[in-house]
Specification:
Blueprint (H helix, E strand, L loop, with lengths): L9 H12 L5 E5 L5 E6 L4 E6 L6 H14 L9 E2 L8 E3 L2 E7 L4 E2 L10 H14 L11 H5 L3 H16 L7 H15 L2 H5 L7 E4 L8 E4 L2 E5 L6 E4 H12 L1 H6 L4 H12 L6 H17 L4 H6 L5 H30 L3
Antiparallel strand pairs: 1-2, 2-3, 3-6, 4-6, 5-6, 7-9, 8-11, 9-10
Length: 343
């Protein structure tokens, strides 16, 4: 679901494509996928993928994505290439939004909760291939030492207290009881973040997709035909990208907030067929994930402080992530032990 209302219509799309790409579209269709506004455009001979990014994205970020995809074209990672404008640029700007035109790839795209389970391990394998391809590719480092040092459990707990206070003033809301219970739990988890933070020491960092999961892949049968949307690419802990991508892609996680440890081990095993992991990575994996989720308030302030039309959907996502927090916290030691047994 797009996070912002589109600034494009058929007329503006036709004018932009004609002026900047020399393309005259004869048909176009708005696609229901991702957080950006996306369109399928046809000029009679070829289909194109037109993407209008949220206003928070800069041209610099998307140019970085285009260059990364260009780099991947020389590797074994299938990615959708960007078309350049008549001025030899990867992007253009329209009404404070970055616009780009990409290759359209036919195939099967799955939503957040309907990736067939038999495809899950191949998602892990492709992530391993991607990290191998990007091992020496320079990207800005996220979750750095400086970022870790800036973390304050007291500040985080104070932020949760503020949200709880707002929720307590809305006891007539059907969701308030669950909101308060979740925020109280995350407060307790925040108090353990000082311990979780130690697991970042010595873990592997690598340039990566940044939002890798099943819905960022296009399939042809059981084969991954393309990896899409590198707009969040950064150098990150591989432990975070691996576990987050599994949780986001697994039907058991998405539908029931239950982590299937044998299935996760198979996912990691497929990853390791292409990229190595250390003993430190295996031990740290669930705790790095917990540290990140303990810090995230996403969904709760959007529901409590705004009147946006998607606030109910965002709250349900927050509820689900907190359930996953509880699940991973309960099984963290078992997860680490199971991963270690694979070395």
């Amino acid at each position: 679901m797009a996070l912002e209302k589109t600034v494009l219509d058929e007329k503006s799309i036709s004018e932009l494509l004609s002026k900047n790409y020399g393309i005259t579209p004869i048909s176009m269709e708005k696609l229901k996928l991702g957080s950006a506004n996306c369109f399928r455009v046809c000029d009679g001979t070829k289909d194109y993928f037109l993407k209008e990014f949220q206003s928070s994205f800069s041209e610099k970020e998307i140019v970085q994505e285009a260059k990364l995809v260009e780099h991947l074209s020389y590797t074994d990672i299938p990615a959708t290439r960007f078309y350049k404008t008549n001025r030899d640029e990867f992007v253009l700007s329209y009404q404070n939004h970055v616009i780009c035109l990409e290759e359209f790839v036919e195939g099967e795209a799955y939503d957040y909760d309907n990736l067939p389970p038999h495809l899950l391990s191949s998602v892990g394998g492709m992530l391993g291939k991607l990290h191998r391809a990007l091992k020496d590719y320079p990207l800005p480092v996220d979750m750095s030492d400086q970022w870790l040092e800036s973390f304050s459990a007291d500040n985080l707990i104070s932020q949760y207290d503020s949200l709880i206070q707002i929720a307590e003033g809305r006891m007539d809301d059907k969701n308030t009881k669950q909101i308060i219970a979740d925020l109280e739990y995350k407060k307790r988890l925040a108090g353990r973040c000082g311990e979780y933070k130690k697991y970042y020491e010595g873990i592997t960092y690598c340039s990566t997709h940044g939002d890798y999961q099943g819905c960022q892949l296009i399939f042809e049968g059981d084969r991954i035909k393309a990896v899409i949307d590198f707009s969040s690419a950064a150098c990150l802990p591989v432990t975070w990208e691996i576990m987050r991508s599994f949780v986001q892609s697994s039907k058991s996680c998405r539908s029931n907030a239950i982590i299937d440890i044998p299935a996760f081990c198979e996912y990691v095993r497929e990853y390791m067929a292409y990229s190595p992991l250390t003993k430190t990575d295996m031990i740290a994996m669930p705790y790095v994930y917990l540290f990140q989720l303990a810090r995230s308030k996403y969904g709760y302030p959007q529901y409590l402080k705004s009147n946006s039309e998607d606030k109910e959907e965002l709250l349900q996502f927050a509820f689900w992530r907190t359930k996953m927090c509880r699940e991973v916290e309960e099984k963290a030691e078992k997860i680490s032990d199971a991963l270690l047994s694979m070395l």
